[in-house]
Structures are given as C-alpha cells and as structure tokens.
Design goal:
Helix content of chain B: over 70%
Helix content of chain A: 55-70%
Strand content of chain A: under 5%
Distance between the termini of chain B: 34 Å
Structural class of chain B: mainly alpha
Largest sheet of chain A: none
Strand content of chain B: under 5%
Largest interface: A-B, 32 and 36 residues
Largest sheet of chain B: none
Oligomer: heterodimer
Number of strands of chain B: 0
Chain lengths: 298, 272
C-alpha cells in the first residue's frame, strides 16, 4: 500500500470497513479537497452554471410562441407554465443524474493502465468512484445554489404551488435514485473499455439516446399520441419501460403532480429495480472485465 | 491572396488525408453528427404535431420552418467544418505557449489560428440541410423568386462571416484571459438564440432580447435573414434586413479583426 499520503490508507480503510471512523474522516477529507478545488474557480463555476440556463430562455420563448399559435389550453396535459416549470425541474434532476467525465475517465484508466492500482490495493474501484462523485455533487449543489436560486426566483411565476409532503418525499427519493441510476449506467458504459479500446463513439451514441429518451428535450407525455406498431402501445409507454426517463423526466413529473397514487408507487419501485439491475450490471462488467484485462503502460 | 488560398487548400488536403487514414472513425463521426441532427428534427416534427405554426401569424408553418432549419444547418456546418476545430485548439495553444510558434511564422496569425484544421465530417449536416431545403421549398405557399435564389448564397456567406467574427472575438478573449475552457460552451449558448425565428422573441423580455441579438451581437441575422428570403414572400421591406445583414457581416469582420489584433498585442508568452 502506498505510504505517500494518508488518502490511500484511509480510502482502503473506508472500503474494507475495519475502521468506520477513519472511513468517515476520509469522506470529509475528500469533501474538503473537492470544495477547495471548486472554490478556486468559483466565479467561473457560478457563471458557467448560470449559462447552462440560457437554452431554457429559448425554450420559454419557443413554447410561448407555440401556445400563441394554437387554440389548445394545454399540450399533452402541460400548460405553458407547466412546460417552463418542467424544463427548470429537469435542470435540477440533471444536476443529480448527469455524470460528466465518469465513463470517459473509467475507459481512459483501462486504456492507459492506471486502473491497475485498484487491482493491487484494497480499494474497491467502483466504491471509490461513487464516494468521489458524492463529494463532487455535494460541492456542486453548494456552489450552484446561488445561480439555481436566482433562476428559480426569476421564473417563480411559472412554477406551480409547492406540493404536499408525500409528493416532496417521492420527489427526493426519485432524485437520489436518479443519481444512483445515472452513476451505475455511466460506470457500466465506461467498463466497456475492457472489451473495446476506444469507446468514445459509443459514449456519444449513449449521450444522444440519453438526451432524447430521458425527457431532457421535452416532456415525454408528448409522445403519448405516437403509435409504435404494437397494439395500444404508444411511444411514451415504450420509453417508460426504459431506465433513461428516471434521469430527467420522472422527478420533474412527480413534482408537477403528473404521476400520482399507485402509479407513483409503482414507478418508484421500478426505478429502485433499475438501480439494482444497473448495480449488478456494473459489478458484473467489472468482475468479468478485470479477469480478461492485460495491463498496458508502465 | 492566392498564396493564402493555396495554403488553405494544403491544410484542407492534409486534414482530409488524416480523416481518410481513420475511415471508420470518420464515418462514425458523420453518423453521430447526423444522429444529433435527426434528433433535433424529430423534436421539431413533434412540436408541429401540436401547432400549425411557430408564433401566431408569423408565417413559420411547417415547410417554411424546415427551410429555416435547413438554412441553419448549412451555415453551422460550414462554420463547424472550417473554423471551430481550430478555435477549440486555441485555448491550449495560449495556455501552453504554443501560440509563440504560430506568431513567428511568416503568415497572418488570424488566418493560421482560425483555419489550420478542417473537420470534413461536420459537412455531413450541411448536405442534410441541402436535402431538407429541397424537401421544404416545393411545399412553400409561394416558390422563391429567382432574385431570392441569387441573394440566398450571399446571405449564407454573410451568416458564416458573422459567426466567424464572433469566433474570432471569443478567441481574442481566450488570448486576453490566458485560459478560456468554456469557449465552446459559450459559443453553443450564444448561437442557441439563432436556432429559432426572431418572431418568437416577443413581449417585455423578448423585445429587448431580440434587439440586443440583432443590433449588439447580430446573431439573429445569421439564419433568419437568408431563411426569410427563401421561405417568406420577398417584399420591398425585406430588403432592409438583407442590407443590414451585409453591413453586419462586414462590420463583424472588421471589428473582430481589430479586437483580435489588439488581443495579440497584449499577449505575453506562457512558454519559458
């Protein structure tokens, strides 16, 4: 084990779970490092986060123009305000489920051989990545609170009243699971690097599918009228069978009250099942991948 | 001038040879680029499931709107192919001091920095744009008059020139700041405003935004004016935006050149 710093030993302790207190200390150390890293470029970070809302400005004007040209009071059950609120809420959801650089980082570590240190040290690679990502996200929310708060304040007239406690709890549960789902899907994708040397094209294809089917572009209820060729099955239903919509559409729809009662419970259970499935897929990919992998690099 | 054209031709040929060396990667890049475009087109088709036009009484019904989208695809593909790959490399050149090697060459620095790399796979979207235009034009209520077809290529060039000028100004910002990794992001967010007809920017917030994106950063002229010439009747008043776009293109090129030169004058090498 490396003696160069406390981190390797602490992290090992964390995941071997022999010293829970040392593990806890490592978590805080990682968190502190992440906070410091982020705060170095805090101005750039805040401006960057604010800029991410610019496409929503275009969407607000686009849907306002669409509603102005149609006699419909709503589209697929969404009023103009609902649609704007939907786009704002998907920004929150994506802040949980998006994992920039995760799959690329895993694939790169496999390609350049740096993944080997996790094979010889008592550190579980996936758990280490998960811990780092949790720290990263916590810092992100801390710093992004200001731009998010500002945008939501400016757009408050579009937002519906705060829902009841049960809906808020369901929303929070869906957010946490969207984080886990996003993490394990991307991690599994990155582990394709064990089988293919270059996976950047696959990642781009995944990004396209994810962007379209997650509901990031538009509320998926709009696909309800589009036939699939299967009897009584619309495109919206097919999309709901897939895991992608839990990473953008589902939490937003929960907050907006589009999914309620037994359907909400069933959807939360289905999301939990998808999380478990993706954990298993990720673990299996790691287990099979490390058994066929040959070390490259010095 | 002929010397620069010959050098540009050499750059393009070298990039094509490199692309053809990794043919599978080139095909994949074309496919993924087309996939992104197809996804956006699917979104627009979906929008037209719910509305006859974008904005009440604007005339941007399905066929004119797709002519608009096609025009945007053609302009953006040219910019993405010719200028963006070089601009993306600039950040690292400034940060690492690699810019020094460019400045000592006996060629214009702006030319070298903005045109040394050509991404041929981005032209795939342009060809799809031409196909989409060919689909949309016969479905317009009024076919474009011959004068519109004569002006259209020139306005496309003006759109490309305006976007090129904006890229050069962002590049100048990179030189001044030393590092500007969000250059591409900023570019994406700014050009996002040009993706839809200008008429959607209406009301107390939309009006000033439209004015700013027309007269301050003329991003709304880039696609709107050429698309309007083809997709909507060419009346007497339509010539004002046409002349405005030509002027804006010239002004953007001149101003961006000056800004770039002044940024270069303030450049301090990062290398040892």
């Amino acid at each position: 084990m490396s003696q160069a710093g406390a981190t390797g030993e602490d992290v090992a302790g964390l995941f071997v779970a022999r010293r829970p207190l040392a593990g806890l200390r490592t978590w805080f150390t990682m968190l502190a490092i992440c906070i410091e890293e982020r705060l170095v470029y805090r101005g750039d970070f805040i401006v960057g986060t604010l800029m991410r809302f610019l496409p929503i400005v275009t969407q607000i004007f686009l849907w306002t123009a669409v509603f102005a040209a149609t006699s419909r009071p709503d589209i697929a059950g969404y009023s103009r305000n609902d649609i704007v609120a939907y786009y704002l809420l998907t920004m929150v959801t994506r802040a949980f489920s998006s994992m920039p650089g995760l799959s690329g980082g895993i694939a790169r570590s496999i390609r350049d051989g740096s993944v080997k240190k996790y094979l010889v040290q008592p550190v579980d690679y996936v758990s280490f990545l998960l811990a780092a990502r949790v720290a990263h996200k916590l810092v992100y929310y801390l710093v992004a609170l200001l731009p998010f708060g500002l945008v939501f304040f400016l757009c408050r007239s579009y937002l519906p009243p705060v829902p009841d406690v049960a809906t808020i709890l369901a929303f929070l549960a869906s957010l946490v699971m969207s984080f886990l789902l996003g993490f394990f899907m991307e991690a599994a994708l990155g582990m394709l690097g064990f089988w293919f040397l270059e996976v950047s094209s696959l990642m781009f294809a995944y990004m396209l599918v994810q962007y379209l089917l997650s509901g990031h572009m538009f509320p998926l209820d709009m696909l309800a009228g589009i036939p699939t060729g299967l009897p009584n099955v619309s495109l919206a239903e097919v999309v709901r069978w897939l895991p992608f919509h839990y990473t953008a559409y589902f939490p937003a729809a929960v907050w907006l009250g589009k999914i309620r009662g037994p359907e909400l419970t069933a959807s939360l259970v289905a999301e939990a099942v998808w999380v478990v499935v993706m954990i298993v897929v990720c673990r299996l990919a790691w287990w099979r991948g490390t058994r066929r992998w040959s070390a490259f690099g010095g | 001038m002929s010397r620069y054209l010959s050098i540009l031709w050499t750059f393009a040929r070298a990039c094509l040879v490199r692309d053809m060396t990794f043919r599978a990667n080139f095909v994949l890049e074309c496919v993924t680029s087309l996939g992104w475009m197809a996804m956006n087109l699917a979104f627009y088709l979906l929008v037209f499931q719910f509305t006859p036009e974008i904005g009440a009484g604007t005339g941007w019904s399905k066929a004119p709107f797709f002519a608009f989208v096609a025009t945007g695809m053609i302009i953006n593909s040219v910019v993405q192919a010719l200028f963006m790959p070089s601009a993306e490399e600039l950040t690292e050149l400034v940060r690492t001091g690699g810019l020094d090697a460019v400045l000592v060459r006996p060629l214009d620095a702006q030319f070298l920095l903005s045109m040394h790399r050509v991404d041929f796979s981005s032209l795939a979207n342009g060809f799809v744009g031409i196909g989409l235009l060919a689909w949309a034009v016969p479905r317009l209520d009024q076919p474009p008059p011959p004068i519109a077809w004569a002006v259209y290529p020139m306005l496309i060039l003006c759109g490309v020139a305006i976007l090129y000028g904006l890229i050069i100004m962002l590049a100048a910002a990179t030189i001044l700041m030393g590092r500007n990794q969000s250059l591409y992001d900023f570019w994406f967010y700014i050009t996002n405003f040009s993706r839809y007809p200008a008429e959607i920017y209406a009301g107390p917030w939309g009006g000033p935004l439209r004015a700013a994106c027309t007269f301050v950063i003329p991003i709304l002229l880039v696609v709107n004016v050429p698309a309007r010439v083809i997709a909507q009747p060419l009346t007497g008043q339509a010539w004002w935006p046409v002349s405005g776009t030509i002027l804006a293109a010239l002004a953007t090129l001149v101003i961006s050149r000056r800004v770039f030169q002044s940024a270069l004058a303030k450049y301090r090498s990062a290398s040892s």
